[in-house]
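Lab notebook, design round three. We kept the backbone fixed and only want residue identities now. Task for the bench partner: fill in a sequence for the structure below.
Input structure tokens:
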């Protein structure tokens, strides 16, 4: 038997030639992975050095001389404030966002709110226009609240327009429009 020496470098070169495309793709993949990881690590270092935490939709809670403010009064809620200021209760979200209010139902008398400079959304303030709709089922100007009722449903039945709930709440001086109870009598303006 002959002692045959294996030429490993030649064997590796022949294998690379046969599998060249796989070798090339693997090399490109490893280089790309290296650059992606290096980029991510450098961004993390920059954020930690500057002590910046990535956030979304955070507005600074500082006032400038040009910003308007509003002091919350007893019985105020964001929808009502937005309606008074912008003519649209839908802007209540904008007020909550500008003041970093996590729970819009929790505002306190005496609290100062920043009023952002924004475009008013669809008007919710003004006269209720009675819509001729098949959904209108209440004709009287008084309504006795039943189990399962809520202002949107009552407004839809009375005016054919669910958005009229705001007018009902305002006219009846409801401090919390989400709290109506069976047996309550509401005046429908």
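Proposed sequence:
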């Amino acid at each position: 038997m002959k002692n045959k020496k294996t030429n490993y470098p030649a064997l590796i070169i022949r294998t690379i030639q046969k599998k060249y495309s796989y070798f090339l793709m693997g090399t490109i993949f490893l280089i790309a992975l290296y650059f992606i990881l290096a980029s991510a690590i450098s961004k993390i270092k920059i954020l930690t050095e500057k002590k910046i935490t990535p956030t979304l939709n955070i507005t600074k809670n500082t006032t400038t001389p040009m910003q308007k403010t509003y002091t919350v009064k007893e019985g105020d809620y964001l929808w009502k404030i937005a309606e008074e200021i912008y003519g649209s209760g839908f802007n209540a979200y904008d007020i909550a966002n500008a003041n970093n209010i996590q729970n819009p139902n929790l505002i306190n008398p005496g609290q100062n709110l920043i009023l952002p400079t924004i475009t008013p959304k669809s008007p919710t303030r003004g006269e209720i226009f009675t819509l001729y709709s098949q959904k209108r089922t209440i004709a009287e100007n008084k309504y006795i609240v039943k189990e399962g009722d809520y202002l949107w449903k009552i407004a839809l039945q009375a005016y054919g327009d669910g958005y009229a709930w705001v007018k009902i709440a305002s006219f009846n001086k409801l401090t919390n429009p989400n709290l109506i109870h069976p047996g309550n009598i509401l005046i429908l303006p």
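Keep this in mind before ordering anything: Confidence is low (pLDDT under 50) at residues 52-61, 127-134.
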